Structure of DUF3299 domain-containing protein:
Amino acid sequence: MLRSLTVLLLAFALLLGSAVARAAPRELTWSQL
């Protein structure tokens, strides 16, 4: 249960990160980090 939840969270974080990196300029993304 906990393991599948962690995998789902990791996949969601990867999708969200790729979407943000694609939508925003890379300099803006790195400055926000």
